[in-house]
Design a protein that fits this description.
15% helix; 13 strands; 2 domains; disordered N terminus; alpha+beta; 5-stranded antiparallel beta sheet; single chain; 6-stranded mixed beta sheet; 2 helices
Length: 243
């Protein structure tokens, strides 16, 4: 039996099917509630000269990806000082007799808070470019095992815009392994002060994150939508009378 024209699936209905399939695949591939939580600062925060070193002077940029908190401070430390996900960027001008860019972890190491080091023989924070993956197996991850130095005397940073890898304890977790992976997007200036532009973390424990400079779809999501769009293009190019 031939269906009346009003009962036949129209071309746009056929074309929509691949998109529905792609959406279903996305729902299956990405854990429920999975998201990159990204905080972009309207105005970058820049470190000032810290005359006491990180141990004795709070001058610098403080931030916490878990809460979205970010501020520049003078001498006095914030309250609370220690908190899961809290970090401290500074320009130490006293310890080495020359400016040194550093990052201090203000969440307890024993809880899994830390930075990603370059390797087990280069125990300074790794310096990443855009599009880098930060997750299990990236660099060397042993909170508190290394040093806070980013550069220039020690460390891996260069005067440029880049990323620092972070491990952040999920406050709801029960062990140091219950961490989120994240990053801080910073510019290192020629005088080794730093400007914080943004920070982010993947809100699924143990799931890696890819560095980026503006909000974009997660790679798995983007790839699956692309499958649907390619299929859609193929159907639209078919001849009107094709079956």
């Amino acid at each position: 039996m031939v269906l009346p024209s009003s009962s036949r699936p129209t071309r746009w209905v056929r074309a929509a099917r691949p998109l529905a399939l792609a959406a279903a695949l996305v729902a299956c591939a990405v854990p429920a509630g999975a998201a990159v939580v990204h905080t972009e600062l309207a105005t970058p925060l820049t470190t000032s000269a810290n005359l006491g070193g990180g141990c004795c002077d709070g001058t610098g940029v403080w931030f916490n990806p878990l809460t979205g908190y970010a501020e520049t401070r003078g001498f006095f430390f914030p309250d609370p000082l220690y908190e899961d996900g809290k970090f401290f960027l500074l320009q130490d001008v006293i310890t080495y007799g020359a400016p040194q860019a550093q990052i201090f972890v203000q969440g307890f190491f024993s809880r899994g808070n830390g930075v990603v080091y370059a390797s087990d023989v280069n125990l300074n924070p790794a310096w990443f470019g855009a599009g880098a993956f930060i997750g299990p197996g990236t660099g060397f991850q042993s909170p508190g095992a290394g040093f806070p130095d980013i550069g220039p005397l020690f460390g891996n940073g260069t005067p440029d815009r880049g990323f620092l890898g972070l491990t952040i304890r999920d406050p709801a977790g029960t062990s140091p392994a219950d961490i989120f992976y994240g990053f801080a997007e910073v510019t290192i200036h020629p005088d080794w002060s730093m400007s914080l532009h943004a920070f982010a973390y993947e809100n699924v424990r143990g799931q890696g994150i890819t560095t980026f400079t503006s909000p974009i779809a997660e790679p798995a999501t983007a790839a699956l939508w692309a499958v649907g769009l390619v299929a859609l293009g193929g159907l639209v190019r078919r001849r009107p009378g094709a079956r």
